[in-house]
Amino acid sequence: MIPPEFDYAAPESLEQAIATLSDGGEDAKLLAGGHSLLPLMKLRLAAPSLLVDLRRVPGLHGIERDNGSWRIGALTRHAELEDTPELGLASVVAATIADRQVRNCGTIGGSLAHGDPASDLPGMVLACEGSVTVQGPGGQRTIAAGDLFSDYLETTIAADEVLTEVHLPAMDGYGFAYHKFNRRREDWAMVAVSALVRRDGDGCADVRVALTNMSSVPVRAAAVEQGLLGQSLTAESIRAAAERADEGTDPPADLNASADYKRHLARVLTARALMEAAGLA
Ligand SMILES: Cc1cc2nc3c(=O)[nH]c(=O)nc-3n(C[C@H](O)[C@H](O)[C@H](O)COP(=O)(O)OP(=O)(O)OC[C@H]3O[C@@H](n4cnc5c(N)ncnc54)[C@H](O)[C@@H]3O)c2cc1C
C-alpha cells in the first residue's frame, strides 16, 4: 500500500529537530529506522502530516560504558546491540528481533518510543531498571523504564520530545536469559520473558523478571520476584515461583494465542528463563 502524502524534513541538529517537530504540531512524527512507523502509514493506520527524520542528527548513535552503566544512543540499531555481547541481556534480546534486515534498520529509541508491548527491547529495559533521556523545547529530563510505558502504543514521552539516550545499569554479576515464544524464528513474541538473577552462594540475592505481550504495557512479574528473593535457588523453588508469573497480567488474545494460553506460556517461559539465568538449566 502507498502511504498518504506527507512533508519531510531532515534536520542537522537536535535543536533543529525539536523545533521542527514542535512547529509541525500534533500531526508531526519523528522518523528513526522507520520499521514500525512506515508499515503503519502504508496500512493507513497512521497519517502524519510531517516526518522529521533523525538520521542526520549527530550524537544519537553509539554504545559506551561509563563505570557501572551503559549509554546507548537512541539511533543505535538492533544489530549493533546484537553485535555487542558485553551488553549481556540487551544483546541476547536484540538478536531475537525479526531478521537481520529488520535489525539493521530498527533503532532502540524507535522501539521504546513506539511502546508496543509485543516488542522485545521494552521488557529488557524494564528488567534492567534502565531509563531514557528525552529532550524537548522545555529542556532535558530522565524517565525511568517503570514510568515510560503508559498504555498500548503509548508512552510518557511528549509529542514534541526526542528520546536521545537509553541508560542501562551494567548488571555485572547477574546471570541472564531471554525466552521468546513464537511460531517462526522471525515473528513477534506471543509471550517473552527477560530474567536476571544475582546469586549469593545458593541463595537469590536479586531477581528481575519482565514479561513481554502479557498486558497493554511490558510488566514485571512481581509475585515471582517476591517469591524467589532471599530463597535458595533450586529447580523446585524456581518452578514454584514461576507458577505465579501471570498474576496481575491482562494478556490480549490475538490470532496466535488465547489469553489463557499466554498465561500458560508466561509460567513455562518464566521457569525456563530463571533456570538459565540462575545457572541451573
Ligand atoms: C517485518 C518486521 C518484523 C518485526 N519484528 C519485530 C520483533 O520481532 N520484535 C520487535 O521488538 N520489533 C520488531 N519489529 C519492529 C522493529 O524492531 C522496529 O524497528 C522498532 O519497533 C521501531 O524502531 P524504528 O527505529 O524502526 O522506529 P520508527 O518506525 O522510525 O518509529 C517508531 C515510533 O517511534 C517514534 N520515534 C522513533 N524514534 C524516536 C525518538 N528517538 N524519540 C521519540 N520518538 C521516536 C516515531 O515517531 C514512531 O512513532 C519488526 C518490524 C518489521 C518491519
Summed up, the domain count is 3
Radius of gyration: 19 Å
- Alpha plus pi helix count: 11
Ligands (ions, cofactors included): flavin-adenine dinucleotide
Quaternary structure of the protein:
single chain
Structural class: alpha+beta
Strand order of the largest sheet: 4-5-10-6-7
Query: What's the CATH architecture of the largest domain?
Result: 2-Layer Sandwich
Q: How would you spell out the order of helices and strands?
A: EHEHEEEHHHHHEEHEEEEEEEHHH
Bulk shape: globular
Low-confidence stretches: none
Percent range of helical residues: 25-40%
Walk me through what this model shows.
- The protein is of the alpha+beta class and about 280 residues long.
- It folds into three domains: about 5-50, Uridine Diphospho-n-acetylenolpyruvylglucosamine Reductase, domain 2 (2-Layer Sandwich); about 65-170, Uridine Diphospho-n-acetylenolpyruvylglucosamine Reductase, domain 3, CATH 3.30.465; about 175-275, CO dehydrogenase flavoprotein, C-terminal domain (Enolase-like, domain 1), CATH 3.30.390.50.
- Helices cover about 30% and strands about 25% of the residues.
- The strands form four sheets. A five-stranded antiparallel β-sheet has the order 4-5-10-6-7. A four-stranded antiparallel β-sheet has the order 11-12-13-14. Strands 1-3-2 form a three-stranded parallel β-sheet, with helices on one face.
- Helix 9 packs antiparallel against helix 10 and helix 10 packs antiparallel against helix 11.
- The longest helix is centred in the last third of the chain and has 19 residues, at about 260-275.
- The chain starts with 6 loop residues before the first strand and ends with a helix.
- It binds flavin-adenine dinucleotide.
- Flavin-adenine dinucleotide (FAD) binds near residues 31, 97, 102, 111 and 188.
